[in-house]
Design goal:
The radius of gyration is 17 Å and the shape is globular. The protein has eleven helices and eight strands. The protein is an alpha/beta fold. Helix 8 runs parallel beside helix 10. An eight-stranded mixed β-sheet has the order 3-4-2-1-5-7-8-6, sandwiched between helices.
Length: 263
């Protein structure tokens, strides 16, 4: 099989339980699977949400704070905890991780974007696994705005995939993929396995689904898919509670929803 450069995005609802505490079993399995994919000769970038939720839990806050400064404090605490766990888990499988925290400006400003691209290349070419998150502890735009630029890292993962010239983007979610209805409201809906074109009708289907612990939903994933496929990458949505879905996708199995690149 041809070696690939892949970006994997994992959301808050996959990394944490209902209480906000880290789901260590899933994180360890994710590290094991990505390490195996990496050790097979592929290059791997992980885009990880979860800093605020993990920080809220570690700080023993009764609820997720509403004001920006406390959210940023929670992000600072949570990001430290997340990277500690990732470093430990990936290290158990013989891999070294590096942290990259981004704001929208890092993507928008040409010189910063070039430096960022060079950092990714240096890490990947030297066998490291970059772990990326938005820099919530210093940037309030993503926390405050109604219309988030990165959409719980869904769009961020697509932008990172383009920046890294990845072959494939895999978005791990608490929803198996895109359905022809809302699976949380109806039992007769069916999974859409393959999408060749993202239409207005599909966007209507995607609206409204999401999770309490994350800030994104299916609509942000569809926006990320549109961006990725227009820039020459396949994108997949799959259940994150079984990280071995990554193996299945890499082996060409029909898992979740596959958005086919436009060229």
């Amino acid at each position: 099989m041809e070696k690939q450069r892949i970006v994997v995005k994992v959301g808050t609802s996959t990394l944490t339980g209902e209480s906000g505490a880290l789901n260590f079993r899933t994180i360890d399995k994710l590290a094991q699977v990505l390490s195996s994919v990496h050790n097979d000769g592929n290059q791997v970038v992980l885009v990880s949400s979860g800093a605020i939720a993990v920080g809220v839990n570690k700080m023993r806050l009764p609820i997720k704070p509403q004001n920006v400064s406390m959210k940023q404090a929670a992000a600072a605490v949570g990001q430290c905890e997340l990277m500690h766990i990732y470093d430990k888990c990936f290290g158990e499988y013989g891999n070294i991780v590096g942290q990259i925290l981004l704001t929208a400006e890092d993507i928008a400003v040409k010189e910063k974007r070039r430096n960022l691209k060079n950092t990714f290349e240096a890490l990947l070419e030297n066998g490291m696994i970059p772990i990326v998150n938005e820099n919530d502890s210093v940037s309030h735009a993503e926390i405050e705005s109604e219309k988030k630029i990165f959409g719980d890292n869904d769009m961020l993962s697509a932008i990172v995939a383009k920046l890294c010239e990845a072959d494939r983007l895999i978005v791990l979610s608490d929803i198996e993929g895109l359905y022809n209805g809302n699976p949380k409201e109806r039992s007769d809906v069916q999974l859409i396995h393959t999408v060749e074109e993202i239409t207005d009708e599909l966007k209507e289907l995607a609206a409204g689904s999401g999770s309490n612990r994350g800030t994104g939903g299916m609509i942000t994933k569809l926006e990320a898919a549109e961006y990725a496929t227009l820039h020459g990458m396949d994108m997949h949505i799959a259940l994150g509670n079984d990280p071995e879905n990554i193996y299945r996708i890499m082996e060409g199995e029909a898992v979740g929803t596959h958005f086919i690149k436009r060229y």
